[in-house]
Amino acid sequence: MYVLADASGSTVRDGFHEGVHLALPHLVHLADERDARFCLAAYGDDAGLRVALIGAGDLTVIPRIPAGGLSSLAAGLRVVAAAIEHDTSQLRSDGMEPGPPATLVLAHGLGTDRDEAVLEARRPLAGRLHVSAPGEDRLAFTGLGATVHPMRLGDAGTVAASVVTAARQAWPASGSTQ
Predict the structure, then answer these.
(1) How far is the C-alpha of 176 from the C-alpha of 142, rounded, in Å?
(2) What are phi and psi of 107, to 5 degrees?
(3) Are 31 and 41 in contact (CB under 8 A)?
(4) What top-level branch of life does the organism fall under (predicted)?
């Protein structure tokens, strides 16, 4: 499971930022139950990997992701696509044939990128992209060719429960073991 979390400045509202951090250990546990791998990336001030692909049972620390900046969803999608390409190649060179990976985007709102940039960046993830977003943005995210899962805002616990539910829904739909 590749998780891409929005860490832009707006995420400090509505319990989003704290809720995502509250949900992450549960997502790792979900991956561990499936004897799968986990990867965490974020986008905000910059986009980058926070946890490189690792067996979920081997993950001992989940880093705190600071909130700040604009939300370049395109940059985040490019980071995840590059990580998947690298990880798939590495696993194959190690004699493993990974299943199709699922990417779960946790978005507080629409990115600040041009639509064309986001569509181009999501192209390598087509068919494996899941987005969990609040109500008013869900329809817009369907334009990404993503499966969209609802996210409820409010307090951190509400957001975390929505994120975990979205991950449970995304996982079997992807057929992923990664």
Answers:
(1) 21
(2) -115, 130
(3) no
(4) Bacteria
Question: 1-33: per-residue pLDDT in tens?
Answer: 999 999 999 999 899 999 999 999 999 999 999
The C-alpha atoms of residue 171 and residue 115 are separated, in whole angstroms, by: 27
Decide: helix, strand or coil at residue 94. coil
Would you call 94 exposed, middle or buried from its count of C-beta atoms within 10 A (0-12, 13-18, 19+)? exposed
Regions in the chain scoring below 70 on pLDDT: 136-139, 172-178
Q: Taking Cα atoms as reference points, which of 15, 27, 39 lies closest to residue 134? A: 15
What pLDDT does residue 177 have? 42
Q: What is the CATH number of domain 2-170?
A: 3.40.50.410
Residue 51 to residues 3, 18, 19: CA-CA distances in angstroms?
Answer: 10, 18, 18
Tell me the residue length of the chain: 178
